[in-house]
Amino acid sequence: MIARRSFIRVIGGLAFSSAFAPRYLLGAEPAGPEGVLVEACGFKDPGGWALDTQHYQQMGGSYLLAHGMGQPVANARTSFRVPEAGTWHVSVRTRDWCPGDWEAPGRFRVKVDGKALEAEFGTEEGWAWQRGGAIELSAGEHTLELEDLTGFDGRCDAIFFSKDPGAVPPSEDIPALSAWKDKVTGRAAKAIEESEYDVVIVGGGMAGCGAALAAREQGLKVAIIQNRPVFGGNASAEVRVHTLGVHGKGSRILKKIDTKHYPNGDAAAHQCQDKREKSMRESGADLFPGHIAIGLGKEGDKITSVEAREATTGIIRRFKAPVFIDATGDAWLGFWAGAEFREGREAKSEFNEGWDRYGELWSPEKADMRVMGTSVLWNSQKGKKPSRFPAVPWAMPVAKDHVATAGEWFWEYSSNDLCQIRDAEKIRDHLLRAIYGSFANAKKHPKNATVELKWVAYVGGKRESRRLVGDHVYKMADATGDEVFPDAVVEEKRELDGHYQIAETGSPYDFLSKAMFMKVPKSYYIPFRCFYSKNIPNLMMAGRCFSCTHVGLSGPRVMNTCAQMGVATGYAAALCKKHGVLPRELGQKHIGELRKLIGYEA
Fold first, then answer.
1. Is residue 122 a contact partner of residue 96, using CB atoms and an 8 Å limit?
2. What is the pLDDT of residue 109?
3. Could you give the 3-state DSSP secondary structure of residue 125?
4. 392 closest CA partner among 69, 136, 140
5. Which of 7, 227, 237, 358 could form a disulfide with 269 if both were Cys (CB 3.0 to 4.6 A apart)?
6. Vertex 516, ends 513 and 521: CA angle to 5°?
7. What is the C-alpha to C-alpha distance for residues 385 and 179, in angstroms, rounded to an integer?
8. Could you say which DSSP state residue 505 is in?
9. Which of 49, 129, 135 is nearest to 95 (CA)?
10. Predicted pLDDT of residue 353
């Protein structure tokens, strides 16, 4: 029997197999106007604008973000060529990220050859092409600039020049937009570079880094794909959360990538980032930072390859391997492959071992989609002289009368109405409104006359979204009970730690959270069966997308523990190659060897 082969190109968070793909994925010409497209991610000099890759799956681009904390950032600059002289009509893909009865906070101008177009951009709701008027251009090279007007997170995905005054490129249909971008830039005609590895790791947070280092230590050829320019995920200098949890048996590896216990949001994260980047470079793994996974190939129920798009160029690379590790946090690889997964809170009655009639503590009577939220950390500093902060009327509906000059982990947002994956940009932006509004309120007090914003993250630190299902689903009773797992490969002893929004208790501030703690009397252990997919035989997972319940996640979700998961799966990949087996069979026949490799008694 010949296994069915398929390829899944994933754009906009949707997976299209060869049987159900739109026509443009099957070789048909993607619809869209002809012209010259300049993608903001490819600007030669981004100036003070930051490259935001977090929301590619949701909005179809890696965009430039004017994250100036209320001070306009330096212009982004590049050049472009038009093939012929004449009148060119300009459209800019952007959005008003905070629409309402006020001036849009993210306004910016576009300059061509030093002259600004008449329109201000970032003033229309939703990601869309905003008209910029017509300009006369000679054939050949011209300069292009983005001029930030506010410092409050204006965003630009692309600028399009067309000879047709009625040209409207795709926008809301994200797959069509992506296919059109590839066509108009010429990328669609380029052959995809393919490479073969022993293991491919998607996700470069602490779990992915741990997996890469462990696999390389055993001599595997390793590729690790990370959508941000740096490694570490929530521990990175972009998010600045210190690593909690125990090292377990993985201390030798984890010391190379973990952080000091600095205050969350502290600039000491940069020193730890340097250490981590050095360790990753010296590991011998092939590193692909700034690459966004967008698709995969399958043969039967196995993954055969992963495709990733370089954020700055849009170039696609294909990575082949016999086994894969999903360390994305959001379980993208498993989701695209059709792996069974869970989201939200289980009902109390579903997992009631050890709790009799109560089920899992903190669980609702009926299952729902509520999860722990995303945090955006921030801080300020005292300046040498009094300073002003701009009026932010658009932030006040969120911040209300809240006053603050810094934000810790509890600046967290989760909502019944918003998905942590689909609505990630909205969630991040809601927290930005809370931050700017609370700081503006603080500046009204004379004691804060010299206080200035020092740092505000723009990369959100997520806690929970999809959880892939393995042969065992880790639950509260596994942490609090007495069961000894013969295939235990990860350990922890910290308390169970779940979060809830204080708005649930009547607070007017929906952007703050509190923790619920339950002490665990002894160390608890997680079995290897939680780290491979139940129905995708060559897929392992490490990090917060491991096989667990909502409450089961609450203890071992912290980064050192997630990195232990990475180490276990990295070593498992090496033994899969050694014995010619897949993860489930490895766990059944060679678990003693894996445990010994990690540091446990076989």
1. yes
2. 98
3. strand
4. 69
5. 237
6. 150
7. 52
8. G
9. 129
10. 61
Spell out a b/e string for 543-577, using b for 16 or more CB atoms within 10 Å of the CB, else e. Answer: bbbbbbbbbbbbbbbbbbbbbbbbbbbbbbbbbbb
The two tokens of residue 63 are 């965009």
For tokens 């009631």, what's the residue? 352
Q: Are 291 and 536 in contact (CB under 8 A)?
A: no
Whole-model pTM: value is 0.95
For position 25, what pLDDT does the model report?
A: 42
Tell me the C-alpha distance between 269 and 154, whole Å. 26
Q: State the Cα–Cα distance between residues 228 and 239, nearest whole angstrom.
A: 11
Give, as one character, the DSSP assignment of residue 83. S
Residue 18, pLDDT score: 34
Q: Does domain 194-347+463-598 have CATH number 3.40.50.1110?
A: no
Three-state secondary structure readout of 430-466: HHHHHHHHHHHHHCCCHHHCCEEEEEECCCCECCCCC
Q: For residues 114 and 125, what is the distance between their CA atoms, to the nearest angstrom?
A: 27
Closest CA to 472 of 485, 462, 481, 463: 485
pLDDT at position 1 is: 37
Instruction: For residues 422 and 91, give the distance between their C-alpha atoms in angstroms, rounded to a whole number.
Output: 26
Token digits for 562?
């997630």
Three-class secondary structure of residue 384 per DSSP: coil
Overall CATH class of domain 34-172: mainly beta
What is the Cα–Cα distance from 216 to 342, expressed in whole angstroms? Answer: 31
Tokens of 477: 């009773």
Residue 447 buriedness (CB in 10 A; 0-12 / 13-18 / 19+): exposed
Contacts of 564 by beta carbon, 8 Å cutoff, 6+ apart: 210, 245, 247, 248, 249, 250, 254, 489, 490, 491
pLDDT average per 10 residues of sequence, the chain (602 residues): 53 39 45 94 98 97 98 98 98 98 98 97 96 97 98 98 96 95 96 98 98 98 98 98 97 98 96 98 98 96 98 98 98 98 93 60 91 98 96 98 98 96 98 98 97 98 98 94 92 95 96 95 95 98 98 97 98 98 98 98 80
Q: How far apart are the C-alpha atoms of 394 and 417, rounded to whole Å? A: 21
Report the alpha-carbon distance of residue 185 to residue 315 in Å, rounded. 10
The amino acid at residue 256 is: K
Which element (helix H / strand E) includes 419? Answer: none
Asked whether this chain's domains 34-172 and 194-347+463-598 adopt the same fold, the reply is no
| Helix H or strand E encompassing 82 | strand 76-82
CB atoms within 10 A of CB 329: 24
* Domain positions in the chain: 34-172, 194-347+463-598, 374-456
Local structure of residue 543 (DSSP, 8 states): S
**pLDDT attached to residue 521:** 84
Copy the structure tokens of residue 65: 């973000």
* Residues ≥6 apart with Cβ < 8 Å to 109: 116, 117, 120, 121, 146, 147, 149
